[in-house]
Amino acid sequence: MHAILITEPGPADVLAWTEVPDPVPGEGEVLVDVAATAANRADVNQRQGNYPPPPGASEYPGLECSGHVAALGPGTGDSGWSVGDPVCALLSGGGYAERVAVPAGQLLPVPRGVDLVTAAALPEAACTVWSNVFMTAGLRSGETLLVHGGGSGIGTFAIQLAHARGARVVATAGSAEKLDRCRELGADAGIDYHRERFPDRVKEETGGAGADVVLDIMGGSYLADNVRSLNVGGRLVIIGLMGGRSGELDLGRLLVKRLSVHATTLRSRPLEEKAAIVAGVAEHVWPLVADGSVRPIVDRTLPLARAAEAHSIMESSAHVGKIVLTR
Ligand SMILES: NC(=O)c1ccc[n+]([C@@H]2O[C@H](COP(=O)([O-])OP(=O)(O)OC[C@H]3O[C@@H](n4cnc5c(N)ncnc54)[C@H](OP(=O)(O)O)[C@@H]3O)[C@@H](O)[C@H]2O)c1
C-alpha cells in the first residue's frame, strides 16, 4: 500500500507518499480500507518531531479515517462488524494511508445523512469534545461554555454540540470572519482575541458570573485568564498547549471559587477508555449528527498525496473546520 511517511522531522515538504508494507491487524483489531482521513494539529506537531506516536501506534500520521472494513483480525469475530461495512474510526496513528489496522472498539458507523468521505472529519473532534466537555467537565444544559479557537476543527464541533445540548456558547477566534462562522454554528457571542481581553467579555456575556466550562487549546499563556473567566464551580479542560506548557495558577481563586483544572490527551488513553468514549459518541453524539443539529464542517478536501499542502494551510490557520484528505 501507499502511506504518507514523515521522512525526517521538519517542514511540510518532509511528507512523502511512499510505498510501504500493508498493516496486519493484531488481536482485537480490524483492517480498514481507507476512503479518507483528515488533518489534525497533532499531525503537524508529529511531523515537526514534537509529538511522537505512543508505543505500538503506527508511525504514519492520521488520527481518524473513514472507509470499509477489509478484514477482521483475531478475536473480532463477535465484534458486530463485517467485511464491507462502511465505518469511520478514531486512530492513534496511521490514517494517512491506504489501509489501517484499528482496535474494534474504536470503529463507529457512518452517521446517517453523512457521506463516507465527509465522515472522516468526525471521529477525532467528536471524541475529543464528548470526552472533555461532557464526560470530564460535565457541561449541562443552561450552563455557559467558553471555546477557544472557535474556527478550529475541534472548536467548530464543540460550538455545535454544546449548543445542540442546550448550553450557551462563547467562542474566541482571530478574525471577524471566523467569529461570523462561529455564530452561524450556534455561538451566542464571539470574541476576537486580537482586539479584546476575553475574561472581561466573558464576564459581560454572563452577567458577571463567568463561564461554567472552558475548553482550552492554548495552555500556559491562557491559564491565568482562563481561571479568571470561570464561574463558581467552574471546570477548565486543557487539551492543547499552543501557548506553552507552563503558566501561573492562582490557587486562591481555585479555593474560593471551587474550581477544577483538567488536562488530557485522547491519543495516549488506554484502549478501554477510548472504547468507552467511542461508545458514548455513538450513543449521544451520532443522533445529533444524523438529525443535522451537528454538522461536519469541512474547509476543503485534497488528495492524500497532497498532505503537505494540507499541513501548510493548517499552519497558516487560514482554514475553518477540517481539512479532509481523500485517497
Ligand atoms: N488533547 C487532546 O486529546 C486533543 C485532541 C484533539 C485536538 N487537540 C488540540 O486542540 C487544538 C485544536 O486542534 P485542531 O486540530 O482542531 O486544530 P486547528 O483546526 O488547526 O485549529 C487551531 C486553531 O487555533 C486558533 N488559534 C491560534 N491562536 C489562538 C488564540 N490565541 N486564541 C484562540 N484561538 C487561537 C487558530 O485560529 P485563529 O487564530 O485564526 O482563530 C486555529 O483555528 C490543538 O491544540 C490540538 O493539539 C487536543
From TrEMBL:
Task: Could you list this entry's UniProt keywords, alphabetically sorted.
Answer: NADP, Oxidoreductase
Indicate the segments forming the Enoyl reductase (ER) domain, all copies: 10-325
> Keyword NADP, does the record have it?
yes
Query: Transmembrane ranges?
Result: none
Which species is this record about? Streptomonospora arabica
The record's annotation in CDD domains points to: p53_inducible_oxidoreductase (cd05276)
InterPro entries, per database record: ADH-like_C, ADH-like_N, ER, GroES-like_sf, NAD(P)-bd_dom_sf, Quinone_OxRdtase_PIG3
Quote the protein name from its UniProt record. Answer: NAD(P)H-quinone oxidoreductase
